[in-house]
Structure formats: C-alpha cells, structure tokens
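Subject: sequence -> structure tokens, single chain

Hey, anyone have a minute? Need the predicted structure for the following. Not urgent.
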Amino acid sequence: MDTAMTQLAAPSGLISLVLFVVAVGVLALLGGGFWINSRIKDREPPRPSAEEQPHLPPEGVTREIQENREPDEIPQTPKGGRALTPYELHNMHTRPSENKDRPRWSKGSSGSFGGGGLGAH
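Reply:
Had a minute. Here:
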C-alpha cells in the first residue's frame, strides 16, 4: 500500500516543481520587461514644462476658413514638343476658386466609389 501511494505522489511533486520553474521564468520575463522599459524612458527627453506648452496666439482663437481651391493650370506642350513628365510638375500650387458654390453629389448617389450611384453629374 505504501508503494502505491509513493508512486502516485511522485509525479505530482515533479509537476509542482515544473510549474514553479515556469512561474519563476514568467516573473523574470516581466521583471526584465519593466527594467528595459525604465532604461528606455530614462533616455527620452524630459516632458515639457507648463511654460513650454503651446499657447494661443496674441490675436486669439483662429477660425476655420472654408473655400474651394482650384489647381494651377498645367503648362501646354508646344506643337512638336516633348510632353512633361510627372516629375517635372512637382510644384503645382492651388488658388482660391472663383466659384463659391460647394460641389454636391447627385440625388440618389452615395458619393462613394463603388456606391452604386452615378456620382456627381
């Protein structure tokens, strides 16, 4: 009877030891993670003070401006000349539009690509 009890108790002692080693390993990984994180945070610059935080401009709160913008015209290629490549059109600017009406989508159209409608017509 004693040998049967000893045989049953032996594997549970081994399982307990394995679980203890795994738990210590997990704790070591967590501790190492906190240590590495603190080293990384020590290398970062300090947080800005209250005086270094952004402030409102002297003229007060800025307001949103809504306007339609139009791109500058693409230069025309002279007859018999070489067409411009996209790399030669790099500094294209926009200007305020003369038309003040905002573009709207057609009725019955969702306005999205693939939305099933005809789009803005």
